[in-house]
DNA repair protein RadA (Gracilibacillus thailandensis), 456 residues
Amino acid sequence: MAKRKSKFVCQSCGYESPKWMGKCPGCHEWNTLVEEVEATKTARGNWATGSGTTHKPEKISSIQTQEEPRIKTKMQELNRVLGGGIVPGSLVLIGGDPGIGKSTLLLQVSSQLSQRDLDVLYISGEESARQTKLRADRLDISSERLYVLSETNLVDIANQIDQLKPGFVVIDSIQTIYKEEVTSAPGSVSQVRECTSELMRLAKQNHIPIFIVGHVTKEGSIAGPRLLEHMVDAVLYFEGERHHTFRILRGVKNRFGSTNEMGIFEMKEEGLTEVLNPSEIFLEERSQGVAGSTIVASMEGTRPVLVEIQALISPTSFGNPRRMATGIDHNRVPLLMAVLEKRVGLMLQNQDAYVKVAGGVKLDEPAIDLAVAISIASSFRDRAPHTDDVLVGEVGLTGEVRRVSRIEQRVQEAAKLGFKRAIIPAKNMDGWTVPASIEIIGVNSVQEAIKVALGD
């Protein structure tokens, strides 16, 4: 009888080793190597003989293509994040914290697609069919073309897909699905890799879009190896605080669209509803006439979003002042404070600094630099900026304010929400049409922007 071989596989990065080690050489995590039995050749297939089918290379100029229509859902926010709708034959991975609303979102999407003459198969490996029905009743979902299957065996799932031939499939979640030929436990690296590979084959061959749910680790990344994210066509993250009603759907990988798009939803009793104008939501609790509060026009993909930035500067009680930031890169705060101290003359070296983006949004573009700098200067001088001002601009190390992209869309969004002045880089003043209801002020340096915003 042939001896079964085993190997040790890291559950974080997929590193393989013939023996156990306490620390993984690949990702340097401790106690993540787990023993797994290698699959036999009959299970994996003999790579030397091939599968019997051969594909010859073709000239790229002779390959015929056609524009395939996307499947539109009733959720415009989801369509935007996906790049215009669901692409037939695509494999999409959705990750998020437990209880954030992934299953609720996909069940609502399944219901909407089933009402468009599509057979939808919702496969739950974590809940029974009756539990899924209870959730559907809470969401007021009922459709004759929405099928629910409680199964974790990949072979049975593939057989049901072949028999039903649905137009849309949901797998909730990939960590619960297992393949019998792979001897490791469900959720392990080998199982996730093999199951995702089989689902990708089903999606491409049958031209069926498949959405799979992935668990996340305590660091916030999708559990399992990074290989899982490389295999799928799109990776979406569902973010938000569990104790708050707003949820943000963000794309980090998309082969069929931009990765800069963001969709905002609100969790209500009847399920997730779209937030079509997020700027009003983020500004509804804005503190007016308070030092340290500014408004920035940021771009999330192709959509401008106005967000409040708050700063609090107070004398430090320790030898090393604290620099804390929420919603922006924490390295950006000490950099801008150094520019203010060197170029403007603000003595911030003995001050604690706390910067926050209100509403739980994460901003990572350089166009928010000017608003952060004005917030810090406003709090330090205890002088409130004008409440009708919106600021946009990148700040360089020499104190200059550099041009930003899509300035026209940013200013139009500010004018639509009733702002009277927009302080922007002077290099962005020409080449576009200014709305009649807003005044545009171009600045060349941070010092000039402070004089305009704070009235110095």
User: Anything to note?
Assistant: The CA atoms of residues 104 and 135 lie 8 Å apart. The longest helix spans residues 189-206. The first strand starts at residue 6 and ends at 10.
